[in-house]
Amino acid sequence: MTGAVVAIADIEEAARRIAGHVRRTPLERSAALSELCGVPVHLKLEHWQETGAFKLRGATNAVLSLSGEERERGVVAASTGNHGRALAHAAKTAGARCVVCLSNLVPQNKKDAITALGAELRVVGKSQDDAQVEVDRLVLEEGMMPLPPFDHPHIIAGQGTIGLEIVEDLPEVRTVLVPLSGGGLIAGIAAAVKARSPKTRIVGISMTRGAAMQASLVAGHPIEVEELPTLADSLGGGIGLANRLTFAMVRDLVDEVVLLSEAEIAAGIRHAYFQEREIVEGGAAVGIAALLAGRIEIRGPTVAVLSGRNIAMDLHARIVAGANGLEGSA
Ligand SMILES: *Cc1c(COP(=O)(O)O)cnc(C)c1O
After folding, report:
1. Which tens digit of pLDDT belongs to each residue from 247-271?
2. Cβ(262)–Cβ(209) under 8 Å?
3. Atom 4 in ligand 1: residue holding the nearest Cα
4. Hey, whose CA ends up nearest to atom 7 of ligand 1?
5. Ligand 1 mean position to 234 CA, how many Å?
6. Which atom of ligand 1 is nearest to the CA of 182?
């Protein structure tokens, strides 16, 4: 890979590498949203990916890109969420050792989910930062390979394979709506879609509560924002003050960023359930939510990426029953 930017050739290579290891997810027309918007609206059903989220694409591409010697050393990350699950699954597929570092505050069900996927757990300290210190130690002292959730060329290229599939299945697509947190997903999709279909708009969508990428774009460089509880928990967290790739790619390739309230995200989860019959997590409902809220300028065929389904089902039940936020959550 040359330079700091992930190119279309890297994404095509990723597609060949991960074929047979991850699902090629369907692109389904939504009758309800097409009617509402007056243009064809399609949903990329990436929440049907194994492990329940798109992160398996990047993790699989990154693990399969390691040399035999690097694979021997094993991979390590500090995520308990969708990236941790994806990395554990990808490492198992490749026969690599995987260590997931987490803090004492992580609930037992999340620990069980990761060990069930064959990864080793290191429980240290009281915060995500403490867990990251242990990752750094394992890299430095034991030579393990760190695979971060978004700011890595093979991770971005893997997520970008979603963009290739969207343009293959709907060449006339004019707007793609993508959930945005650290930016690995949207950077990869934008690189793929803009290479194949330069006029197609890429819109990133985050929650108002703690939108680190949007705040960084406004500031002109990566900044930290306060992390707040949100229905879109998988969109929380920072972009890293030492961000190498995703900040510049998002700045250069993404046309617009839209921020949504908790009530708007809840309405997206409900629409997915009642109209589309799909169970999605908050972070995956934002594309639908932005359309419902009238926040997207409609310009021809539109795709919303549904990025994951790993929501606590008791929370999902409360939202479906009408709750408009996390209130009442344990
Ligand atoms: C990680 C994640 C995102 C955001 O992806 P980034 O690459 O961090 O922007 C969106 N949706 C789900 C379900 C995720 O797990």
Report:
1. 999 999 999 999 999 999 999 999 9
2. yes
3. 181
4. 184
5. 6
6. 8
